Each structure stands twice: as C-alpha cells, then as structure tokens.
Amino acid sequence: MLGLYHCESCNKNYAQKSTLARHIKYECSKLPRFGCGLCSYRGYQKTHVVSHLARKHYLQLKPDINENILIFETSKY
Ligand SMILES: [Zn+2]
Ligand SMILES: [Zn+2]
Q1: Per-domain residue ranges for the chain?
Q2: What is the distance in A from the centroid of ligand 1 to the CA of 64?
Q3: Which of 8, 26, 35, 53 is 20 to 30 A from 63 (CA-CA)?
Q4: 72: CA distance to ligand 2 center in Å?
Q5: Which of 52, 42, 38, 47 is nearest to 77 (CA)?
Q6: What one-character-per-residue DSSP string does 3-28 give?
Q7: Whether the model pTM is above 0.90
Q8: 19-50: per-residue pLDDT in tens?
C-alpha cells in the first residue's frame, strides 16, 4: 500500500495526514534509539526491533541470552 502523505525529511509515506503529523512530531525529529545487530534496521522502540527480528530474521528473543547481542541501544548519538 502506498502512502499518500510523504515525509520530506526521511521519505517515509503515510496513508493518513494525522499519522504523518504524528510521525514528524514524535518520530522524525528524534533518532531511532534501538538497532538490530544483524542488519541496519533501526527502531524507535525495543518492541519494534523484537518484531523485526522475528519477521526478517526468524529469531525469537530469549531474555538475557541474545537480547544484548541482537538489540543495541544507539544512545551514544
Ligand atoms: Zn520523517
Ligand atoms: Zn535486522
């Protein structure tokens, strides 16, 4: 599904104007905090990376075992 509303800053598309507005206000101005250890994916919430790992890498996280390897925090930006 192609979005109708386009963020000028990061090229993301959104189906609704309100979603785009929320994105610009809460997401786009902030850097993603969490990153995938296996690829260049970045997420704003840890749960985003967790679901990314499950979808793209077919990995289920085991708390304390692979969480620190597969999810890193990009807090040092
Ligand atoms: Zn954006
Ligand atoms: Zn990944």
Answers
A1: 1-30, 34-73
A2: 32
A3: 26
A4: 11
A5: 42
A6: -SEE-TTT--EESSHHHHHHIIIIII
A7: no
A8: 999 988 887 777 788 999 999 999 888 899 99
